[in-house]
Amino acid sequence: MTLRTYVAAVIGHGPVATAIAGTLGHSGATVVRPLPEETAEAVVARAASVGPLGVLVNCPGIGSSGRAEELTDADWADALTAVVTSTGLACRAALPAMRQQRFGRIVNLSDRQYLAAPGNVAFGAAAGGVVSLTRALALDAIKDGITVNCVVAGTVDVGQIAALTEEERERLRKLHPVGRLGSPEDVANAAMFFLSDESAYITGQTLFVCGGVSIYSSLSV
Amino acid sequence: MNVRGRVALVTGSGGGLGEGIARRLAAEGASVMINDIDAARVEGVASDIRAAGGAADGLAADVSRSEQVQALVARTVETFGRIDILVNNVGIAKDRSLFKMSENDWDSVLTVNLKSQFLCSQEAAKHMRDQGHGRIVNIASRAWLGWWGQGNYGASKGGIVSLTRTLALELGRYGITVNAIAPGLIDTPLFQALPEETKARLMQAQPGGSVGKPEDVAWAALFFASDEAAFVTGQLLYVCGGKSLYATPAV
Fold this sequence. Notes:
The complex is a heterodimer of chains A (about 220) and B (about 250).
Chain A: E1 7-11, H1 15-26, E2 30-32, H2 40-50, E3 53-58, H3 73-101, E4 104-111, H4 121-141, E5 146-153, H5 159-162, H6 166-175, H7 184-195, E6 206-209
Chain B: E1 7-10, H1 16-27, E2 31-36, H2 39-51, E3 55-60, H3 66-80, E4 85-88, H4 103-131, E5 134-139, H5 151-171, E6 176-183, H6 189-192, H7 196-204, H8 214-225, E7 236-239
Parallel strand pairs in B: 1-2, 1-4, 2-3, 4-5, 5-6, 6-7
Helix pairs in contact in B: 1-8, 3-4, 4-5
């Protein structure tokens, strides 16, 4: 695959963001990662000062909130801010430079919880917001050579999932048509596909990297 | 996106999209079996790939007939020792509005476009299951969302989307992934043959104002066929310059 020699901003602190940044780095991109407490917009601005910003990857932390009636006003606002607002503002910050150079690749990470997140309504809604944001931005940006796509991660075997008991993990594996849980590299591979120069004719799309679990839901097309 | 050393069968690869996909897989180091109904086209593409340093064999076959599908898959395995990748690409169109569509228009399009994918997947998956590895890539179309005069074509492509999801569920446990690509407007011989004003109108309706290339679709096929896409299955990816955003199903 071919990647132009642009600067890449990879927003997010989790294992998936780390895997994407690592893969981009191995492919020769100059990768800019967030400093502690740095806002997404500030990372983008710093990346654009390093060189021409060609790639933006947003990996918002999609956590757990709770059932609707349990949420405080702040819980709602925090989930939407951390996921949708930060992603949207990072895109807004990156677009002028990308439009000027008539090239850009943006990948926004979302989560399978957007299809339905019982007990996690705020983050589920926020994850859905990333998909909608991606589609609208794709139409706004296509004439300037910029593609915007969404990778929806399924169950990735890190963090809370990796901390489950072996029995619980086996139950989860059995729910996956491919018989295993995902890795950060699985998600990174799909992100790299969209980030390639060669994905110029692919925009506004949502690709599930979930071992086939999305097939149980109607919205995966 | 690694397919080096893999063996790929691409149906309908004597020209157009299928040829583009076969050439890309061969360029990335896969051995490819070329198939078309026309023997001269099969030999043309296979010898071109060999001349470029790739590994290719070819067999003319009608992939909507089970005995010919069996022979095609058997030949692939005989020649290259295994079959890792199946790209179900072959397709025809016979566009007619409902009142003008004949029974034959319906049957031939459904048979060539959809039944062929069932037959080829069934035959190839037997080997993939035994190997514990396989990649099936089905070429659908954005037309499955519905278009005037495409009752037969759209239904065949919608059937491909459904088939893809079911096969993904059934075959996942064997290390076989099944995904579909929905190309939009692509600069194939079929597009080239359209009147200039139709081409201009179609391009104007594109969000980016341009038409895609067979290489754009081949790139997506390469991704789904690659080792790196092991955790991606049952998915439909549009390669359409964003046109799908105007008409995704309200499911």
